[in-house]
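Q: What structure does this chain adopt?
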Amino acid sequence: MRIERVRIHHIMIPLRSACRRPPAGRREGENLIVEVESSAGVVGLGECLPRPQLTGESVAGSREALSQFLLPELLGRTFREFAPLRAFLVERGEAAEAAGRLAAFGAAETAALDLFAKERGVPLMRLLAGGEPAGARLVYTGLLPAAGAWRAARRALALRLAGFRQIKVKVGDGGGLERVRLVRRLMGRHIDLRVDANAAWNVDEAIERLAAMKAFGLSAAEQPVPAEDLDGLGRVGRETGLDIVADESLTGVESAKRLIERRACRVLNVRVAKCGGLLRSLRIIELAREASLDWQLGCLAGETGVLAAAGRHLACATGDMRHLEGPCGPFRLGADIVRERVTVGWAGRARPLPGPGLGVTLSQRAIERFTRDSEAFE
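A:
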Protein backbone atom coordinates (compact mmCIF):
# COMPACT_ATOMS: atom_id res chain seq x y z
CA MET A 1 0.00 0.00 0.00
CA ARG A 2 1.41 3.38 -1.04
CA ILE A 3 -0.48 6.49 0.05
CA GLU A 4 -0.65 9.01 -2.79
CA ARG A 5 -3.43 11.46 -1.82
CA VAL A 6 -5.23 12.68 1.28
CA ARG A 7 -8.39 14.77 1.63
CA ILE A 8 -10.09 16.51 4.54
CA HIS A 9 -13.81 17.37 4.46
CA HIS A 10 -15.20 19.80 7.03
CA ILE A 11 -18.84 18.76 7.27
CA MET A 12 -21.86 20.26 8.98
CA ILE A 13 -24.57 17.63 9.34
CA PRO A 14 -28.07 18.30 10.75
CA LEU A 15 -29.06 16.96 14.17
CA ARG A 16 -32.53 15.63 14.91
CA SER A 17 -32.69 17.73 18.09
CA ALA A 18 -30.67 20.56 19.58
CA CYS A 19 -27.55 19.56 21.49
CA ARG A 20 -27.83 19.79 25.29
CA ARG A 21 -24.07 19.74 25.94
CA PRO A 22 -21.53 22.41 24.89
CA PRO A 23 -22.01 24.14 22.59
CA ALA A 24 -25.59 23.88 23.81
CA GLY A 25 -28.40 24.60 21.38
CA ARG A 26 -26.54 23.78 18.19
CA ARG A 27 -28.59 22.12 15.45
CA GLU A 28 -25.69 20.81 13.37
CA GLY A 29 -22.87 18.41 14.10
CA GLU A 30 -19.41 19.58 13.08
CA ASN A 31 -17.10 16.76 11.99
CA LEU A 32 -13.93 16.24 9.97
CA ILE A 33 -13.87 13.37 7.48
CA VAL A 34 -10.49 12.10 6.26
CA GLU A 35 -9.81 10.18 3.06
CA VAL A 36 -6.47 8.56 2.27
CA GLU A 37 -6.05 7.15 -1.25
CA SER A 38 -3.52 4.61 -2.44
CA SER A 39 -1.74 4.41 -5.78
CA ALA A 40 -4.27 1.70 -6.69
CA GLY A 41 -7.17 4.17 -6.23
CA VAL A 42 -8.46 2.52 -3.02
CA VAL A 43 -9.75 4.95 -0.37
CA GLY A 44 -9.58 4.60 3.43
CA LEU A 45 -11.86 6.63 5.72
CA GLY A 46 -11.49 8.25 9.12
CA GLU A 47 -13.52 10.69 11.20
CA CYS A 48 -12.75 13.30 13.84
CA LEU A 49 -15.21 14.78 16.36
CA PRO A 50 -13.18 17.31 18.35
CA ARG A 51 -14.67 17.89 21.80
CA PRO A 52 -12.89 20.64 23.79
CA GLN A 53 -14.44 19.38 27.05
CA LEU A 54 -12.89 15.93 26.49
CA THR A 55 -9.49 16.25 24.80
CA GLY A 56 -9.12 20.03 24.57
CA GLU A 57 -9.22 19.94 20.76
CA SER A 58 -11.19 22.27 18.52
CA VAL A 59 -12.30 21.72 14.93
CA ALA A 60 -9.87 24.36 13.70
CA GLY A 61 -6.99 22.95 15.74
CA SER A 62 -7.71 19.38 14.63
CA ARG A 63 -7.86 20.40 11.01
CA GLU A 64 -4.52 22.18 11.35
CA ALA A 65 -3.00 19.12 13.02
CA LEU A 66 -4.27 16.86 10.24
CA SER A 67 -3.17 19.09 7.36
CA GLN A 68 0.20 20.21 8.72
CA PHE A 69 1.43 17.26 10.78
CA LEU A 70 -0.50 13.99 10.73
CA LEU A 71 -1.53 13.44 7.12
CA PRO A 72 1.75 14.68 5.55
CA GLU A 73 3.51 11.95 7.54
CA LEU A 74 1.45 9.36 5.63
CA LEU A 75 1.91 10.78 2.15
CA GLY A 76 4.31 8.84 -0.03
CA ARG A 77 4.80 6.04 2.49
CA THR A 78 4.60 2.40 1.44
CA PHE A 79 3.51 -0.42 3.75
CA ARG A 80 3.58 -3.95 2.39
CA GLU A 81 2.93 -5.72 5.71
CA PHE A 82 0.72 -4.90 8.65
CA ALA A 83 3.43 -5.06 11.34
CA PRO A 84 5.39 -2.04 10.01
CA LEU A 85 2.17 -0.04 9.58
CA ARG A 86 1.08 -0.86 13.12
CA ALA A 87 4.49 0.06 14.55
CA PHE A 88 4.46 3.35 12.63
CA LEU A 89 0.96 4.23 13.86
CA VAL A 90 1.72 3.27 17.47
CA GLU A 91 4.80 5.51 17.47
CA ARG A 92 2.93 8.42 15.89
CA GLY A 93 0.03 7.86 18.27
CA GLU A 94 2.28 8.27 21.30
CA ALA A 95 3.58 11.55 19.87
CA ALA A 96 0.04 12.71 19.10
CA GLU A 97 -1.11 12.04 22.66
CA ALA A 98 1.86 13.98 24.05
CA ALA A 99 0.98 16.88 21.73
CA GLY A 100 -2.75 16.85 22.61
CA ARG A 101 -3.92 15.66 19.17
CA LEU A 102 -5.80 12.49 20.10
CA ALA A 103 -9.03 13.10 18.17
CA ALA A 104 -7.22 14.29 15.04
CA PHE A 105 -4.76 11.41 15.09
CA GLY A 106 -7.59 8.90 15.51
CA ALA A 107 -9.09 10.03 12.21
CA ALA A 108 -5.79 9.70 10.33
CA GLU A 109 -5.02 6.33 11.92
CA THR A 110 -8.47 4.86 11.20
CA ALA A 111 -8.23 5.95 7.56
CA ALA A 112 -4.81 4.29 7.17
CA LEU A 113 -6.01 1.05 8.77
CA ASP A 114 -9.17 1.04 6.65
CA LEU A 115 -7.10 1.52 3.49
CA PHE A 116 -4.69 -1.29 4.34
CA ALA A 117 -7.51 -3.73 5.15
CA LYS A 118 -9.37 -2.81 1.93
CA GLU A 119 -6.27 -3.40 -0.18
CA ARG A 120 -5.85 -6.79 1.51
CA GLY A 121 -9.54 -7.58 1.02
CA VAL A 122 -10.15 -8.39 4.70
CA PRO A 123 -12.45 -6.87 7.36
CA LEU A 124 -10.62 -4.47 9.65
CA MET A 125 -11.62 -6.53 12.67
CA ARG A 126 -9.21 -9.27 11.53
CA LEU A 127 -6.26 -6.90 11.65
CA LEU A 128 -7.29 -5.57 15.05
CA ALA A 129 -7.75 -9.08 16.46
CA GLY A 130 -4.47 -10.32 15.01
CA GLY A 131 -6.31 -13.24 13.42
CA GLU A 132 -9.80 -14.64 13.78
CA PRO A 133 -12.08 -12.10 15.56
CA ALA A 134 -13.63 -12.97 18.89
CA GLY A 135 -17.03 -13.33 17.21
CA ALA A 136 -18.86 -11.69 20.06
CA ARG A 137 -22.63 -11.50 20.21
CA LEU A 138 -23.09 -7.77 19.91
CA VAL A 139 -25.85 -6.18 22.00
CA TYR A 140 -26.05 -2.40 22.18
CA THR A 141 -27.37 -0.29 25.05
CA GLY A 142 -30.43 1.92 24.69
CA LEU A 143 -29.98 5.53 25.79
CA LEU A 144 -32.49 7.67 27.64
CA PRO A 145 -31.40 11.33 27.40
CA ALA A 146 -32.13 14.07 29.90
CA ALA A 147 -35.76 14.98 29.29
CA GLY A 148 -39.01 15.89 31.00
CA ALA A 149 -41.34 13.21 32.37
CA TRP A 150 -43.57 12.92 29.29
CA ARG A 151 -40.72 12.72 26.81
CA ALA A 152 -38.78 10.32 29.05
CA ALA A 153 -41.81 8.05 29.35
CA ARG A 154 -42.27 7.97 25.57
CA ARG A 155 -38.59 7.17 25.05
CA ALA A 156 -38.61 4.44 27.73
CA LEU A 157 -41.69 2.79 26.21
CA ALA A 158 -40.10 2.94 22.73
CA LEU A 159 -36.97 1.22 24.08
CA ARG A 160 -39.11 -1.43 25.75
CA LEU A 161 -41.06 -2.08 22.56
CA ALA A 162 -37.76 -2.35 20.67
CA GLY A 163 -36.65 -5.08 23.10
CA PHE A 164 -33.69 -3.33 24.74
CA ARG A 165 -32.48 -5.03 27.92
CA GLN A 166 -29.67 -2.61 28.74
CA ILE A 167 -30.51 1.05 29.39
CA LYS A 168 -28.31 4.04 30.25
CA VAL A 169 -30.09 7.07 31.72
CA LYS A 170 -28.66 10.59 31.67
CA VAL A 171 -29.02 12.05 35.18
CA GLY A 172 -26.74 15.09 35.37
CA ASP A 173 -29.65 17.53 35.49
CA GLY A 174 -32.05 17.95 38.37
CA GLY A 175 -34.55 15.31 37.22
CA GLY A 176 -32.34 12.24 37.34
CA LEU A 177 -33.96 10.42 40.27
CA GLU A 178 -37.46 10.70 38.84
CA ARG A 179 -36.18 9.57 35.44
CA VAL A 180 -34.53 6.48 36.96
CA ARG A 181 -37.70 5.65 38.93
CA LEU A 182 -39.79 6.04 35.77
CA VAL A 183 -37.55 3.81 33.66
CA ARG A 184 -37.50 1.04 36.26
CA ARG A 185 -41.28 1.15 36.62
CA LEU A 186 -41.94 1.14 32.87
CA MET A 187 -39.27 -1.37 31.85
CA GLY A 188 -39.36 -3.83 34.71
CA ARG A 189 -36.93 -5.36 37.16
CA HIS A 190 -34.89 -7.45 34.75
CA ILE A 191 -33.22 -4.81 32.60
CA ASP A 192 -29.63 -3.74 33.20
CA LEU A 193 -29.97 -0.09 34.30
CA ARG A 194 -27.07 2.34 34.70
CA VAL A 195 -26.76 6.12 34.90
CA ASP A 196 -24.47 8.79 33.47
CA ALA A 197 -23.99 12.13 35.25
CA ASN A 198 -21.52 13.62 32.75
CA ALA A 199 -19.31 15.03 35.55
CA ALA A 200 -22.16 17.22 36.84
CA TRP A 201 -21.78 16.79 40.63
CA ASN A 202 -19.29 17.30 43.40
CA VAL A 203 -18.40 14.31 45.57
CA ASP A 204 -20.98 14.89 48.30
CA GLU A 205 -23.77 15.50 45.78
CA ALA A 206 -22.78 12.35 43.88
CA ILE A 207 -22.84 10.19 47.00
CA GLU A 208 -26.23 11.54 48.10
CA ARG A 209 -27.91 11.31 44.68
CA LEU A 210 -26.51 7.92 43.74
CA ALA A 211 -27.48 6.49 47.12
CA ALA A 212 -31.09 7.41 46.33
CA MET A 213 -30.89 6.02 42.78
CA LYS A 214 -29.25 2.81 43.98
CA ALA A 215 -32.60 1.72 45.42
CA PHE A 216 -33.76 1.15 41.82
CA GLY A 217 -31.09 -1.44 41.08
CA LEU A 218 -28.27 0.31 39.25
CA SER A 219 -25.47 -1.75 37.74
CA ALA A 220 -23.07 1.19 37.40
CA ALA A 221 -22.72 4.98 37.52
CA GLU A 222 -20.75 6.84 34.87
CA GLN A 223 -18.58 9.89 35.62
CA PRO A 224 -20.42 11.33 38.63
CA VAL A 225 -17.73 13.97 39.39
CA PRO A 226 -15.45 16.26 37.33
CA ALA A 227 -12.84 14.62 35.13
CA GLU A 228 -9.82 15.77 37.12
CA ASP A 229 -11.14 14.55 40.51
CA LEU A 230 -9.78 11.01 40.46
CA ASP A 231 -9.72 10.72 44.26
CA GLY A 232 -13.35 11.85 44.36
CA LEU A 233 -14.26 9.29 41.71
CA GLY A 234 -12.78 6.53 43.85
CA ARG A 235 -14.49 7.83 47.00
CA VAL A 236 -17.92 7.84 45.33
CA GLY A 237 -17.42 4.20 44.37
CA ARG A 238 -16.34 3.15 47.85
CA GLU A 239 -19.12 4.99 49.70
CA THR A 240 -21.99 4.03 47.39
CA GLY A 241 -20.83 0.50 46.60
CA LEU A 242 -21.57 1.13 42.91
CA ASP A 243 -19.31 0.28 40.01
CA ILE A 244 -17.98 3.61 38.76
CA VAL A 245 -17.34 4.13 35.06
CA ALA A 246 -14.63 6.62 34.08
CA ASP A 247 -15.53 8.51 30.90
CA GLU A 248 -14.53 12.20 30.84
CA SER A 249 -11.59 11.20 33.07
CA LEU A 250 -10.37 8.82 30.38
CA THR A 251 -8.97 10.22 27.15
CA GLY A 252 -5.76 8.45 26.20
CA VAL A 253 -3.40 5.77 27.43
CA GLU A 254 -1.73 7.98 30.04
CA SER A 255 -5.03 8.90 31.67
CA ALA A 256 -5.95 5.20 31.78
CA LYS A 257 -2.72 4.49 33.65
CA ARG A 258 -3.51 7.23 36.18
CA LEU A 259 -7.02 5.90 36.75
CA ILE A 260 -5.66 2.42 37.35
CA GLU A 261 -2.86 3.59 39.66
CA ARG A 262 -5.31 5.63 41.76
CA ARG A 263 -7.93 2.84 41.81
CA ALA A 264 -10.43 5.47 40.80
CA CYS A 265 -12.97 3.32 38.95
CA ARG A 266 -14.20 -0.16 38.17
CA VAL A 267 -14.92 0.36 34.44
CA LEU A 268 -13.11 2.26 31.67
CA ASN A 269 -15.32 3.80 28.98
CA VAL A 270 -13.31 3.53 25.76
CA ARG A 271 -14.44 5.73 22.88
CA VAL A 272 -12.45 5.57 19.64
CA ALA A 273 -13.08 9.25 18.87
CA LYS A 274 -11.61 10.52 22.16
CA CYS A 275 -8.95 7.88 22.84
CA GLY A 276 -6.73 8.44 19.79
CA GLY A 277 -8.10 5.84 17.42
CA LEU A 278 -8.34 2.07 17.29
CA LEU A 279 -4.82 1.02 18.28
CA ARG A 280 -4.66 3.29 21.32
CA SER A 281 -8.13 2.09 22.29
CA LEU A 282 -6.81 -1.47 22.11
CA ARG A 283 -3.92 -0.49 24.38
CA ILE A 284 -6.35 0.93 26.95
CA ILE A 285 -8.36 -2.29 26.78
CA GLU A 286 -5.17 -4.27 27.41
CA LEU A 287 -4.41 -2.12 30.46
CA ALA A 288 -7.93 -2.71 31.79
CA ARG A 289 -7.55 -6.45 31.40
CA GLU A 290 -4.14 -6.46 33.09
CA ALA A 291 -5.62 -4.54 36.03
CA SER A 292 -8.67 -6.86 36.22
CA LEU A 293 -10.98 -3.94 35.41
CA ASP A 294 -14.01 -4.03 33.15
CA TRP A 295 -14.28 -1.85 30.07
CA GLN A 296 -17.10 -0.69 27.87
CA LEU A 297 -17.11 0.64 24.32
CA GLY A 298 -18.81 4.01 24.07
CA CYS A 299 -19.51 6.51 21.31
CA LEU A 300 -19.82 10.26 20.85
CA ALA A 301 -23.14 11.85 19.96
CA GLY A 302 -22.90 12.99 16.36
CA GLU A 303 -20.72 10.19 15.00
CA THR A 304 -21.46 9.31 11.39
CA GLY A 305 -21.33 5.80 9.96
CA VAL A 306 -17.53 6.02 9.67
CA LEU A 307 -16.90 6.07 13.43
CA ALA A 308 -19.88 3.80 14.08
CA ALA A 309 -18.27 1.22 11.78
CA ALA A 310 -14.91 1.63 13.52
CA GLY A 311 -16.57 0.93 16.87
CA ARG A 312 -18.34 -2.12 15.46
CA HIS A 313 -15.05 -3.59 14.23
CA LEU A 314 -13.36 -2.95 17.57
CA ALA A 315 -16.24 -4.65 19.38
CA CYS A 316 -16.00 -7.69 17.09
CA ALA A 317 -12.21 -7.88 17.46
CA THR A 318 -12.29 -7.87 21.27
CA GLY A 319 -15.59 -9.29 22.42
CA ASP A 320 -15.26 -8.94 26.21
CA MET A 321 -16.71 -5.47 26.74
CA ARG A 322 -19.10 -5.03 29.65
CA HIS A 323 -21.41 -2.75 27.69
CA LEU A 324 -21.58 -1.57 24.10
CA GLU A 325 -22.90 1.84 23.05
CA GLY A 326 -23.78 3.36 19.65
CA PRO A 327 -24.28 3.69 16.80
CA CYS A 328 -25.97 7.03 17.47
CA GLY A 329 -26.17 8.21 13.86
CA PRO A 330 -29.64 6.94 12.86
CA PHE A 331 -31.13 8.34 16.09
CA ARG A 332 -29.18 11.60 16.42
CA LEU A 333 -28.34 12.68 12.87
CA GLY A 334 -30.77 13.97 10.28
CA ALA A 335 -28.69 12.24 7.59
CA ASP A 336 -25.49 10.23 7.21
CA ILE A 337 -22.52 10.46 4.85
CA VAL A 338 -22.04 6.74 4.16
CA ARG A 339 -24.09 4.61 1.79
CA GLU A 340 -24.44 1.72 4.21
CA ARG A 341 -26.83 1.94 7.18
CA VAL A 342 -24.84 1.22 10.33
CA THR A 343 -27.52 0.63 12.94
CA VAL A 344 -28.89 -1.96 15.36
CA GLY A 345 -31.75 -4.40 15.22
CA TRP A 346 -34.23 -5.89 17.68
CA ALA A 347 -33.09 -5.66 21.32
CA GLY A 348 -30.00 -3.73 20.24
CA ARG A 349 -28.48 -6.73 18.49
CA ALA A 350 -26.06 -6.23 15.64
CA ARG A 351 -23.91 -8.26 13.28
CA PRO A 352 -20.39 -7.69 11.94
CA LEU A 353 -20.28 -5.41 8.93
CA PRO A 354 -19.63 -7.22 5.64
CA GLY A 355 -16.95 -6.21 3.19
CA PRO A 356 -13.26 -5.29 3.49
CA GLY A 357 -11.89 -2.59 5.75
CA LEU A 358 -14.53 -0.69 7.70
CA GLY A 359 -17.21 -1.95 5.33
CA VAL A 360 -18.53 1.55 4.57
CA THR A 361 -18.15 3.94 1.64
CA LEU A 362 -18.81 7.65 1.36
CA SER A 363 -21.93 8.90 -0.35
CA GLN A 364 -20.60 11.53 -2.72
CA ARG A 365 -24.02 13.15 -2.84
CA ALA A 366 -24.02 13.52 0.95
CA ILE A 367 -20.45 14.82 0.97
CA GLU A 368 -21.35 17.47 -1.59
CA ARG A 369 -24.44 18.41 0.38
CA PHE A 370 -22.93 18.69 3.85
CA THR A 371 -19.32 19.73 3.23
CA ARG A 372 -18.51 23.30 4.23
CA ASP A 373 -15.09 23.11 2.55
CA SER A 374 -12.40 20.57 1.65
CA GLU A 375 -8.67 20.45 1.05
CA ALA A 376 -6.51 17.86 -0.68
CA PHE A 377 -2.80 17.01 -0.71
CA GLU A 378 -0.77 14.80 -3.02
